UniProtKB/TrEMBL annotation:
InterPro entries: Acyl_CoA_acyltransferase, GNAT_dom. Residues 190-323 form the N-acetyltransferase domain. This is GNAT family N-acetyltransferase. Gene3D superfamilies: 3.40.630.30. It comes from the Bacteria.
Length: 323
């Protein structure tokens, strides 16, 4: 029987997740983390959250979310997850849960269903072969999962592969060629160091030039309140950033991204910024870093040069609804 969300299912769904979703590498749920990720999210919709039961036992859980203020939000719904008990992982059960989510998307006027990193319901997962080091968000569907193959069968198109990359910072050392690159940039008037409000200016203009509202908000706030950010500067003017430099409680180095103003590209600043970011994380006792990038993104070579390895792949997927 298909049921829309009711709080009475919370513990049973947590138990299902901790039995089945963890097999695909996802972090276990607690009542607190379930509430944080799902139920208390401003994008949670009980009419788009489904529980499949059999003989009054929960055998399946699916959740989707929507929001006009989200990237692609006016046309897309985000498929967050579909989890089924091992004995219930049939085509029919997967389809019943998926079609329930998609029907809700269409009722809300959405033209497509997406599985991608813009989903605000962030699902943490464990990095394989580590002491439960974790990444804070899954940027798509794990390519080695049953759900991935099912979505392909249902007509979802794989639009990109995201490589999840990992570095144990104990193994990081600044290569001599990066120091040489930094010296060359310095000869052209560029410096790469931690932001200092007494020495640097122009953060807002730099961020506007990168045209990323999330960076404008987060990096702008960090440079205002003193949270460390690695910046590239030409004289006093900030022309790029990497960061912020924050060690999370789980030992991971959190950062929002890296960007260089288009007018100052071509000096190797992006590479220098990334290596200086790794150095900054290591200096504050950060245990590890993790990130994801497109499999065809040339930046993957920079990450590999720093010692990062691809540890998992996720598929960004979409299905457009027929009119």
């Amino acid at each position: 029987m298909m049921n829309t969300w009711d709080k009475q299912y919370t513990q049973a769904v947590i138990d299902l997740w901790n039995t089945e979703a963890v097999k695909d590498g996802y972090k276990e749920l607690t009542e607190q983390s379930f509430e944080q990720i799902f139920a208390s999210s401003p994008y949670f919709d009980k009419e788009n959250t489904f529980v499949l039961t059999q003989n009054e036992q929960v055998i399946g859980f699916a959740c989707g979310c929507t929001g006009e203020d989200l990237p692609l939000g006016q046309v897309a719904g985000y498929l967050t997850c579909i989890v089924l008990d091992e004995e219930s992982q049939t085509e029919e059960n997967y389809a019943e849960l998926l079609h329930a989510v998609e029907k809700r998307f269409q009722e809300l006027g959405k033209k497509q269903s997406d599985v991608l990193f813009f989903n605000p319901m962030m699902l943490p997962w464990y990095i394989p072969d580590t002491p439960k080091h974790e990444h804070n968000n899954a940027p798509g569907v794990p390519v080695d999962s049953r759900l991935y193959s099912f979505l392909l069968e249902e007509g979802y198109v794989e639009r990109a592969k995201e490589c999840a990359m990992y570095l144990n910072l104990d193994l990081f050392a600044m290569p001599e060629e990066i120091r040489t690159k930094q010296e060359k940039a310095a000869a052209s008037g560029y410096s790469v160091e931690l932001f200092d409000a007494g020495r640097h200016e122009g953060v807002a203009a730099m961020l506007q030039g990168l045209n990323n509202p999330l960076w404008e908000k987060e990096i702008g706030k960090c440079t205002s309140d003193g949270t460390p950010v690695v910046v590239a500067a030409h004289g006093r003017q900030v022309v790029g950033f990497a960061g912020p430099v924050i060690r999370q409680d789980n030992g991971r180095g959190y950062f929002a991204g890296i960007g260089v103003h288009p007018e100052h590209e071509g000096h190797g600043l992006g590479t220098i910024l990334f290596f200086k970011l790794c150095e900054a994380f290591k200096s504050i006792g950060t245990d590890y870093m993790s990130l994801y990038t497109g499999s065809s993104n040339p930046a993957i070579r920079i990450y590999e040069k720093a010692g990062f390895q691809t540890v998992k792949q996720f598929a960004v997927m979409r299905r457009e609804f027929s009119l």
